[in-house]
Amino acid sequence: MMTEHTESDYQARYWHWLDDGRMQCDLCPRDCKLHEGQRGACFVRMRQGEQMILTTYGRSSGFCIDPIEKKPLNNFYPGSSVLSFGTAGCNLACKFCQNWDISKSRDMDRLMDQASPEAIAKAAVANHCKSVAFTYNDPVIFAEYAMDVADACHARGVQTVAVTAGYINEVARRDFYAKMDAANVDLKAFTEDFYFKLTGAHLQPVLDTLVYLKRETQVWFELTTLLIPGHNDSDEELTAMSQWIMTELGPDVPLHFSAFHPDFKMLDVPATPPATLVRARQIALQAGLNYVYTGNVHNIEGDTTFCPECHAPLIVRDWYLIKKYRLTAQGHCPDCGAAVAGRFASKAEHFGRQRIPLMMSAPT
Questions:
Q1: Which of 146, 350, 351, 357 is close enough to 139 for a disulfide, judged by CB 3.0 to 4.6 Å?
Q2: 80 — phi, psi (to 5°)?
């Protein structure tokens, strides 16, 4: 039986006492060490007396029904709809954050929409959503809430999706991904210098998460890299990243290259030219990856899923609209019989480009 929680009584997991009386949060590699009343770098995990509180449990910055391709997940039940929500805060400090009004928010009053795990699962079923996505800000920092929602969703036959930077410690990582059916993980760059200077984090823990997902779980996952001109878009870095993915994760993990637009603390950096995404896609394909996509630009070829063997176009997309779907009911190419990696229904759904805001509860 599910236990409902409120902000005032929810005791978070993943911490231990230090010899000096401080409490260390063990959720992510930041290992925040807290005195009474202090919050971690994520801002939502707080020491309160002898316990740690998750201040955003049951509270959201908003709910919306999206196409699954917007997460982006192109090889996970194409054309289906996903109920998306997030909370506030983040455990990274990306200077280029494109959801900074949510992820960098320290204003708990903006979390106007309240919902229990059971209410979210019921809403997904009532709105014919194939899955629920934890997104907008990183679900790692509200892991306990996300895992409770996942349990409620699975009890009703609803899939779960994490959209995350993958910055999480080993024990929490095991618990968190055990509840997820799919994930899109941001591989923000392929240099430690980029991670340290532009995200306030480190590259290796993210790589560790990706290897764990591939070798230790059944989670379907895809990768996204936001290409920022002059920072992570060189041929050398893209080649090194593609080769690492090929070696450590294999050719069937989809990779999305998306376009940066000036935002937050990087307003002086120009938007990513579409040609950069096309170039990056070609580098990754030449490295041997089978499913490489472009995002945030209009590029039908970059949106299309091709057969890994005969290269026939199998799922042709125009933005988030599926124009042609040729996979067999078993997820194979009808021309050569090759299996396409992913999770597929017997036929595609056609939710399309809609974006439907959903109010779970009336603001108070």
A1: 146
A2: -80, 165
Helices (H) and strands (E) in the chain, counts: 9, 19
Rg of the chain over Cα atoms, rounded to whole angstroms, equals 20
Query: How many whole angstroms separate alpha carbon 251 and alpha carbon 292?
Result: 10
Distance CA 132, CA 253 (A): 21
Task: Residue 90: name the closest of 264, 267, 245, 210 by CA.
Answer: 264
| Residue 282 neighbours by CB under 8 Å, 6+ apart | none
Count of positions (residues) in the chain: 364
Put the strands of the sheet holding 255-259 in their side by side order. 292-295, 255-259, 220-227, 182-186, 159-164, 131-134, 81-86, 62-67, 356-358
**Tens of pLDDT along 16-31?**
999 999 999 999 999 9
| pLDDT tens digits, one per residue of 211-240 | 999 999 999 999 999 999 999 999 999 999
Q: Which regions of the chain are under pLDDT 70?
A: 1-9, 100-113, 361-364
178 contacts 150 by C-beta, under 8 angstroms: no
- Asked if 217 and 174 count as a contact pair (C-beta separation under 8 A), the reply is no
> H/E/C letters for each residue in 130-170?
CEEEECCCCHHHHHHHHHHHHHHHHHCCCEEEEEECCCCCH
Residue 98 confidence (pLDDT): 76
Contact 83, 358 (CB under 8 A): yes
Residues paired with residue 45 on neighbouring β-strands, in sequence order: 54
142: which 2 tokens? 């509200």
Going by C-beta distance under 8 Å and a sequence separation of 6 or more, which residues neighbour residue 54? 7, 10, 11, 12, 44, 45, 142, 144, 145
- Write the DSSP symbol of residue 75: S
Whole-prediction pTM:
0.94
Under a CB-based contact definition with an 8 Å cutoff, are residues 364 and 337 in contact?
A: no
Q: State how far the Cα of 265 lies from the Cα of 353, in Å rounded to an integer.
A: 30
Give the other-Cβ count within 10 Å of 226's Cβ. Answer: 24
- Domains of the chain in sequence order: 59-358 (3.20.20.70)
